[in-house]
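Record type: monomer structure entry
Structure origin: computed from sequence
Chain ID: A
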Amino acid sequence: MKLFLAALAILCFSVRLRAQDLVWKNGDIHVKSSFRALSVVTDQVVWAGGSQGQIGRTLDGGKHWSFGTIKNFESLDFRSIYAFDSLHCVVANAGSPAYIFSTTDGGKNWRTVYQNEHKEAFIDGLDFWNEQKGIAYGDPLSGKMLLIATTDGGSTWQELPESQRPELKPGEASFAASGTGLRCYDKKKIRITTGGKVSRLWTSKDAGASWSVSDLPILQNVETGGAFSAVFWGKKGAVVGGDFKNDEQTGKHVFSTEDNGKTWVLPLRPTRGLRECVEFLGNDNLIAIGPAGCDVSNDGGFNWYALSDEKSFHVVRKARNGSLVVAAGNGKIALITPKIK
């Protein structure tokens, strides 16, 4: 039966899915935390990070969760997380001082592997290309984006030289809403989405040694709005955002591309408001989530359809090795699975 269900899930995401083909189920977690960080490793192993220092883990695909905090850091707001397996995980907080922690024993013990005391230090996201090499980024310090790299699985981190760090415009930063403003692709490629008064897409093909940048047509000149998250597959991509002070606002908040971001197209049918995270599910299937609800697209983001009206969700991720899809938000973690017919 388990093999059958796994095959069914893979089949669902390998064809053009419809909202009515999916089932949304909230988990029973009873934890007072705003979860914005998710790392779905397999169909069984998922890690989550949130406010009040909460870090959660499930080993059975979300049926049961265990939660804990890092001693002496119980007040931190964790918004970026990357898990390698059930034991090894790195997590970063949003705010100053900025920290990155690492565990190799399933969260029993944590080490501080990066610390930045600068009053404006603020980590927005982190990702890895493989089990050794990864990168984290944050709001600008002295006008330049904070970039921190690791080559040993997150055990140690080094800030990239100032000469390699993108110079941001006044009011340009990123939203640490879902940890997906940065994504690593292939062996060395990076995409970073910025927002605020300026929304742009930064691209590096050499692990951050050099950068190119292009403007995004998404909502501009709004401190509380702009691009929140982007995802690419092949030459196609989608970017989502909006204004977090008006999360039901629509218009110029979601775009799609079929030429690597050279041109962007408004959808015929957009999402129903602010979306803080977009995730690729396979075969032009996308899912996007935000405080006002969740939508899916089966044509690369040109048409979006309502999946759930559940409020106060911020992040949705698919398993790197599997088909499990998990969403998280304010005291909530949900599973999104194919409907059994």
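Annotation 1: The chain has one domain: 2-338.
Annotation 2: Residues 1-8 have pLDDT under 50 and may be disordered.
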